[in-house]
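Exercise 7.
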Amino acid sequence: MTINPDNISNLRTVNQQLTFSKFKTGKEIVDWIGPMQAQDYNMSKWALGIRLQNSTEAEINREIDSGAIIRTHLMRPTWHLVSSDDLHWILELTAPHLKTRSASRDKQLGLTDAIIRKCNKIIEKELRDSNHCTREELLSELVKNKIDTDNNRASHIFMRAEIEGIICSGRHKKNKQTYAILDEWVMRVKKFNREEALKELATRYFTSRGPALIQDFIWWSGLSLKNAKLALEFNKDQLLSETIGGQTYWFADSEFKSESVSDEILLLPAFDEYIICYRDRSAFLSGVDNKKTISNNGIFYPSLLKNGQIIGTWKRNIKGQRLLMTINQFKPDKDDHPEFLLKCLNRYSKFIDRKIELNG
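Solution. The predicted structure, written as tokens, is:
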């Protein structure tokens, strides 16, 4: 397969399962695509839903409550959704550099190793025997044990417990997220040595997100240049590469045909992998529109996608069972078909089970 600047973005929509998805469950999506950024929890569930046909938020919640999909700190470091099958081996690969990256902030917050060990013991005691607890419940226990949780310390305490493989997300309790003991909640089903893990992570990335650059993979995974190069070397027989404009793109073989590109409009969630997993976003987002899509402090807004290009943004305001939607197209096109926008709005309405009303 030959790639060119004109089909890079459309190839990515197919590989990311945004168009012509071949999967039926959220678990199948995270098995295929690997970790998906998820600091905006509700939007991350739509990131799964938009890659499935006729899915609902309730179905995604059931998969999370079953332990098939886990939300935890995994790479860069930030929240991710990840398949329960992949959590252990990816965490073992990325945890060392996650600890290194958080060490300076932990020191600023006065979170010494001794304090972290004390916090971990308190948290483990509360969660033991499948007693899934909310953040608020665990915070209460930490405070009772004279642990200072103010000034962002709580977030770092919980993140360290996740990075050290002690806790992960659990089942919902009264519509609130909880934590669980990792080894109680998630079975270890895959065992990789470091070389195998590097190879598998690169395979997953370039198969589901290619064509992409090694710099994109480094940005997404948080790996060093040395380890990223090793990961690609381990995949030299599985992946293809092509150089365009002096840059080498890596991807898996595909039967993609340009004429199969869909004209539908998609409502991408905030922090969607289609945008956030690439360091170089020029294939689908102009420099001018980049400022409208990504804030100066790194907030990735919900976006409109058409034919592989970001064409606008959207935002929602939930009022009871009503959902007020505001659509902002960067360059409104008189040839746009209103039914395409209506179709994507109806799809989102069914997913969240709320009636949508357009603002303006």
